[in-house]
Amino acid sequence: MENRIKKIRLENGVSQKVIAAYLDVPVTTYASYEQGKSQPSSERLIKLADYFNVSVDYLLGRTPYKRPTDDPSLVWGYVTPTGRELTPEEQEEAKKFIDMMVRAHDAENQDK
Known about the structure:
Blueprint: H1 2-11, H2 16-23, H3 27-35, H4 42-52, H5 56-59, H6 88-110
Helix pairs in contact: 2-3
């Protein structure tokens, strides 16, 4: 997990200090997450995933896909109610729509 947390932080050009402040932990604590010396709580892991817009499973190294909709094995529902299979372009649009809906739902529930 530590490699994923550091990698995604660097990809996003964010300092340890910024992430530590977001998680409300000392920089040394956050650094220990990246070094694998300690593990973030479930709550902080969720906050990290939300901050970087990735799944918790991605941060934990359980999947190579940052978001569930990135997983090509989830091309299960790309058939219309009439039985017509969606084109690759339509499938991509469907994935984007699903991702947008998930984000909206997450944002709505975060405010509660």
